[in-house]
């Protein structure tokens, strides 16, 4: 006889096996179709498509919204070699790309929705998106622009069964330097754009040093340095750096600022031309609010702050409380990613208890 754990492990493995990355639109659709099918019959399924990214909103036909609670799951993953999409079970750990971020949670959220949606005395929806890893503009944000609303949102990102009420904002930036080309044998005749760029990066890292340990402050990751120069014996005349900046709600240089204001600030610090390609606000939910207190009570857990951004920020921007609440595991976006299978049942049960008992 198949146990609950064995059954859900097999279904999560089937979803992991779909390489649902941003550059594979057919696989994004296949992952979405699989999870919609998992939700079962008798539901209203509203489909969306924005810039090639499909998403869906499922709800009981009699409750078209707005919703009391939305359960949100993203089905896209970051790229991996083919072996990353071959799920493997090692003891209590199921490995594979997306196991922890967040295909296991997606299956559990779908199960809970299927079990309870028809019986709850208030409207609930399941929101399935396929673009969270590339910013969420065409999934969660697009659905919100189309009028989807809720009083409270649970996003199944990994949290080891803790409730995340605060997460950092994200800012993706390019620094650009322009020097003067010259023969490499006579470097004094040119101006090396790469050296100008590394000096600018050093100034930024001096202002926002890389922490030695976990710290709730602004961090800068240098993701890429490049130049169009293709010759050893030429002083490069152009160079560009890609930066990923994560900032807490308390940082006045980023929080509440426009892209233009942030670009001006970073240009002053770095001393070079700065372009903000994207900026997403931090996320905060009231830890003393009735929804958060009820979820914490149902899970018997504590609060957590997360350094990574998630689709919760799109709800926060509209004044809607959203939290991250997901199972345990580790290694997301890496070769050893896994979900901790023994946390899936407590995760399921906490969600069921919250949805059945909340009356705030």
What is the CATH fold-level name of the largest domain?
A: Aminopeptidase
Largest sheet, in brief, is: 9 strands, mixed
**Can you write the helix and strand succession as a string?**
HHEEEEEHEHEEEEHEEEHEEHEHEEEH
β-strand number: 19
Structural class category: alpha+beta
* Percent of residues in beta strands: 25-35%
Q: Number of domains in the coordinates?
A: 2
Please count the helical segments.
Answer: 9
CATH class of the largest domain: Alpha Beta
Q: Looking at this structure, what is the CATH superfamily of the largest domain? A: Zn peptidases
Helix percentage? 25-40%
* Overall residue-averaged pLDDT value: 95
Distance between the ends: 40 Å
Q: Supply the CATH architecture of the largest domain.
A: 3-Layer(aba) Sandwich
Low-pLDDT regions:
none
- Outline: elongated
Overall radius of gyration: 23 Å
Structure description:
With 360 residues, the protein is α+β, with helices and mostly antiparallel strands. It folds into two domains: 4-167 and 282-357, 3-Layer(aba) Sandwich (Aminopeptidase); 169-280, Alpha-Beta Plaits. 30% of the residues lie in helices and 28% in strands. It is built from nine helices and 19 strands. The chain has helices at 4-16, 25-38, 99-116, 140-145, 193-207, 259-270, 290-299, 312-316, 344-357, and strands at residues 44-50, 53-59, 67-74, 88-90, 93-95, 124-129, 150-155, 163-167, 169-178, 182-183, 219-226, 234-235, 238-247, 273-280, 283-284, 303-306, 321-325, 329-330, 338-340. The strands form four sheets. Strands 1, 2, 3, 6, 7, 8, 15, 16 and 17 form a nine-stranded mixed β-sheet that branches. The protein has a four-stranded antiparallel β-sheet with strand order 4-5-19-18. Helix 1 (4-16) crosses helix 3, helix 3 crosses helix 9 (344-357) and helix 7 packs across helix 9 (344-357). The radius of gyration is 23 Å and the shape is elongated. The two termini are 40 Å apart. The mean pLDDT is 95.
């Amino acid at each position: 006889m198949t146990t609950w754990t064995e059954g859900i492990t097999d279904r999560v493995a089937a979803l992991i096996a779909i390489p649902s990355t941003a550059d594979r639109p057919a696989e994004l659709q296949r992952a979405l179709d699989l999870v919609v099918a998992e939700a079962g019959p008798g539901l209203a399924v509203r489909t969306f498509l924005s810039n090639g990214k499909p998403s869906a909103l499922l709800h009981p036909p009699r409750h078209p919204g707005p919703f009391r609670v939305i359960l949100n799951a993203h089905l896209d993953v970051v790229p991996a070699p083919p072996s990353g999409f071959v799920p493997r079970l090692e003891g209590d750990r199921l490995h594979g790309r997306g196991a922890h971020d967040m295909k296991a949670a997606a299956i559990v959220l779908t199960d809970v929705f299927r079990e309870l949606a028809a019986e709850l005395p208030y409207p609930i929806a399941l929101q399935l998106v396929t673009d969270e890893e590339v910013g969420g503009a065409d999934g969660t944000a697009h659905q919100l622009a189309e009028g989807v609303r809720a009083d409270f949102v649970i996003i199944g990102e990994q949290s080891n069964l803790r409730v995340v009420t605060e997460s950092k904002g994200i800012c993706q930036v390019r620094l650009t330097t322009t020097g003067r080309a010259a023969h490499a044998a006579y470097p004094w005749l040119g101006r090396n754009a790469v050296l100008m760029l590394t000096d600018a990066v050093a100034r930024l890292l001096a202002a926002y040093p890389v922490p030695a340990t976990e710290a709730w402050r602004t961090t800068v990751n240098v993701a890429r340095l490049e130049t169009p120069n293709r010759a050893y014996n030429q002083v490069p005349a152009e160079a560009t750096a890609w930066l990923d900046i994560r900032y807490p709600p308390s940082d006045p240089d980023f929080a509440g600022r426009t892209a233009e204001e942030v670009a001006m600030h970073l240009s002053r610090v770095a001393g070079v031309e700065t372009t903000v390609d994207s900026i997403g606000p931090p996320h905060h939910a009231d830890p003393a609010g009735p929804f958060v207190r009820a979820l914490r009570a149902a899970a018997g857990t504590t609060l957590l702050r997360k350094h990574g951004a998630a689709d919760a920020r799109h709800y926060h921007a509209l004044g809607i409380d959203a939290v991250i609440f997901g199972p345990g595991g580790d290694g997301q976006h890496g070769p050893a990613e896994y979900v901790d299978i023994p946390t899936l049942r407590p995760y399921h049960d906490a969600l069921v208890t919250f949805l059945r008992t909340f009356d705030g």
